[in-house]
Amino acid sequence: MGVAKTVRWGVIGLGWFGEVHVDALSAMPGIELAAVCTRRPDRLKEIADRYGVPRRYTDYRELLDDPDVDALSIVTHINDHRHIAIDALRAGKHVLLEKPMAPDVAQCDEILAAAGESRGLFMVGHICRFDPRVALAKQAIDEGRIGRIISMHARRNLSKTIGRQVLDKISALLGDGIHDADLMLWFTGSRPVTVYAQEVHPGTNKYPDAGWAMFRLENDAVGVVESVWCLPETTPYQIDARMEVLGTEGALYINCGEAGLEIHDRHGARLPDTLYWPKPFGERFGVLRAELRYFANCVVEGRRPDRITPEESRAAVALMAAAGESARTGQVVSLA
Does the global pTM surpass 0.90? Predict the structure, then answer.
């Protein structure tokens, strides 16, 4: 699909993160926020009016028929990803699909098949690959500065307040553990061979609140992913996210939990988000904006996104889906 220098963008799904997409896109040069879509008419009017979006749809298929929309953010429930993404790709739209790509590998493969036949570009939004702290770590690894990776451990833990809001939609391991699983596969360039996982379900939501997964890679490295959405409601962390990567000649320590800013007031201490999608003085910036800009540049230049490929997104889903199977059965699961 040929597009002008300005990318005309639509957003499908107007939950909390869909609104963050809308907010970021609305102020980005070279992007026209052309259309929004949700099944909820009141929410549609609220967001469209707030951001002055001219085209408003309660049926995503009508948005896909709109010739004045070039690219899409799909920010819906994971169980809706497959059919919306496939329909969008078949309509020739450029598609940025929020992670995880799908709940299982079979659905990922269906999306990949549609992407392979589409004239539109396709990328899954693994935001952590655009985090400068993570990107610099990857660069150091590629430069050989820590030798061969032998061990990795990551934690990405959230308040139970967030857990209660999200755990009816997705598990902690698939919802957030997939970030670190993807980064570990990216850092090593290796494939997982086996995985063993355990989940804990102290809450009342549909999915477990906490999960740990340990996997072995073809290069003999070991990775451990910890995702616990059960921190106290008083936790100061927006996201307590850290990773250590140990190699034969050195080590890396990535700290995405410490925000660089602590606010202490009558409500206690708080470490606000200062990098992912903060909004100082009313202007959204950060890693999400960088991800959106990257995809927009790919659309304008007609080049296939390679910061994260669809195949890499599928591999992360495969690993976390296998971890979920291991947690349910209590058995080591082979991915070879």
Answer: yes
